[in-house]
Amino acid sequence: MKPETNRYRSLLAALLTVAMIAPTAAFDLDSDTPIKVTADNARLDDGQGIATYTGTVELEQGDTRLSADRVVLYRTEGGLSRIEASGTPARYRQPARDGEGETDARALNITWSATESRLTFEREAVIEQNGNLFRGNVIHYDTAGRVVTAEGGADTGEGGGRVEMVIQPRSADRRTDRQETDGSSESQ
pLDDT of 31-77, one tens digit each? Predict the structure, then answer.
């Protein structure tokens, strides 16, 4: 097989894995499930449509959760339009798309935009799911198109500021079965 074909297949496999790692639809405004917010402090500016929560802030909608030190909710006449969260780090969790495991994402800043159908993780951004990892300075996830883009950051001497992906083998079970049948298992 040509080296170009192998590189293409490797790139395709990596991109498919990124799609599996990425969160699904984030908060669902069409859902009948309300978004519940708890915090140490709250300030509501009804005229501007801005609610600011500080302290230990927790947002929940069904199994989707966001925790942060500070969360700002923006409302328009159409409803909730934007969520901005910051923390050390802020953390976003929801069940994985395939129903197995959980997507666990964290960053110093997390923004969800309903109008752009986008989740953005900024500064020290990490998304993990079932042992797979995606890390970058900024990670954008288009929830409608299910497209992930990432940007590296400045080279701080600790990792070179590049985007990093760790992709687990397809099936740990197949690997275990193969070890037991070929005699290379530790139990023998």
Answer: 778 889 999 999 999 899 999 999 999 999 888 899 999 999 999 88
The model's pLDDT over 122-153, given as tens digits with 9 standing for 90+, comes to 999 998 887 888 888 999 888 777 777 888 87
Tokens for 139, please give them. 């990670």
Q: How far apart are CA 11 and CA 33, in angstroms?
A: 38
H-state helical runs in 42-138: none
Structural domains of the chain in order of their starting residue, each with its CATH number: 3-180 (2.60.450.10)
Query: Which CA distances in Å does 47 have to 36, 79, 111, 134, 178?
Result: 21, 14, 22, 39, 64
Angstrom distance (rounded) from CA 71 to CA 90: 9
The number of beta carbons lying within 10 Å of the beta carbon of residue 86 is 20
The answer to whether residues 127 and 22 touch, using CB atoms and an 8 Å cutoff, is: yes
- Our measurement of the distance from residue 99's CA atom to the centroid of its chain's CA atoms, rounded to an integer in Å, reads 15
Tokens at 148, concatenated? 């992930």
pLDDT in tens, 88-111: 999 999 876 666 678 889 999 999
Q: Is the peptide bond before 34 cis (omega within 30 degrees of 0)?
A: no
22-38 burial: b if 16+ Cβ within 10 Å, else e? bbebbbeeeeeeebebe
